[in-house]
Amino acid sequence: MRRMLTAIMLSAAAAAQAQVSVSDDYGNRVTLQQPARRVVSLAPHLTELLYAAGAGERMVAAIEHSDYPEQASKLPRIGSEAGIMEKSGAWYSFNGDRIGQGRDSAKEFLKQHPEIAKDIREKILDKAGIKRAAVEAVPPEKKDKSKGK
């Protein structure tokens, strides 16, 4: 029984140090050598889920309106409250230039201007104190569409 318990504990410890690999929205594979130690939540409901899952101590920043549980409201803000992008009514702006009216329009603008999207991404990561390996996302329309056919 003692050996079984020791084996289970060693397995759990090994799993906690195991490599983590996921694919992003563009199909790029991102691999971490160990589970993330610092997490930034980009949606209020995800902030709540992270705390519910016991990952609250790993949270380093969250997007505006992430106010539950109460500890989440004390996190540094990423997004318009962080001063990286501005929002006035339905308009989104970056560095004083309007980039789109409404979320979908701003997203389309950023797809068409990947250099600006990269600049925004880097400012968000810097604001959160996150160092990131150089992984360039390739928009889906630039990928070889002949693959997988």
Radius of gyration: 19 Å
Number of beta-strand segments: 8
Shape: globular
**Beta-strand content bin:** 15-25%
Tell me the span between the first and last alpha carbons. Answer: 53 Å
- Number of helical regions: 4
Q: For the residues shown, what is the average pLDDT?
A: 78
Report the CATH superfamily of the domain at 85-138.
RecA protein, C-terminal domain
The low-confidence runs, each spanning 5 or more residues with pLDDT under 50, are 4-8, 134-140, 145-149
Order of strands, main sheet, comes to 3-4-5
The CATH architecture of the domain at 85-138 would be: 2-Layer Sandwich
Provide the structure class. alpha/beta
Structural commentary:
- The chain contains four helices and eight strands; from the N terminus they run H-E-E-E-H-E-E-E-E-E-H-H.
- The chain has 149 residues and is an alpha/beta fold.
- Among the domains are: 35-78, no CATH class; 85-138, 2-Layer Sandwich (Rec A Protein, domain 2).
- The radius of gyration is 19 Å and the shape is globular.
Present the secondary structure layout.
Layout lengths: L1 H15 L3 E4 L5 E4 L6 E3 L2 H9 L6 E5 L13 E2 L6 E4 L2 E4 L2 E5 L1 H10 L1 H15 L21
Parallel strand pairs: 3-4, 4-5
Antiparallel strand pairs: 1-2, 6-7, 7-8
Keywords:
21% strand; 8 strands; single chain; alpha/beta; 4 helices; 3-stranded antiparallel β-sheet; 149 residues; Rec A Protein, domain 2; 3-stranded parallel β-sheet; disordered C terminus
